[in-house]
Design brief:
The protein is of the alpha+beta class. The chain has 2 domains: about 35 residues; about 35 residues, no CATH class. It is about 30% helix and about 15% strand. It has a 3-stranded antiparallel β-sheet, with no helix packed on it. The radius of gyration is 29 Å and the shape is rod-shaped. InterPro entries: Regulatory_FmdB_Zinc_ribbon.
């Protein structure tokens, strides 16, 4: 269940409330009783961690697990056409240096 921050527009009282997403928002201030208790917009209270997320892989300009995997996969893909044989390269009019193989 998420925690929502509320603030009364009349008296300024603030309160954090643990509610279900399906629950109706609170409207009555517990401090002054006015019906101006409003839900506030706040930042998320969690941080995503692990391989593939910005914090670990992309903060330093692409150095990390994802960048290493992309570089390794690209090298294997570049080697595949060169080692496939000369027959396919000679049969095509564009040669072996193009990107269509």
């Amino acid at each position: 269940m998420p925690i929502y921050a509320y603030k009364c527009e009349s008296c300024g009282h603030t309160k954090d409330v643990l509610q279900k997403i399906s629950d109706d928002p609170l409207t009555d201030c517990p401090a002054c009783g006015a019906s101006s208790f409003k839900k506030q917009l706040t930042a998320a209270g969690f941080q995503l961690k692990g391989s593939g997320w910005y914090v670990t892989d992309f903060r330093n300009g692409g150095s990390g697990a994802a960048a290493g995997a992309a570089a390794t996969g690209g090298a294997k893909a570049a080697e595949a056409p060169a080692s496939s044989g000369g027959e396919a390269a000679s049969a095509t009019p564009c040669g072996t240096a193009c990107a269509c193989h």
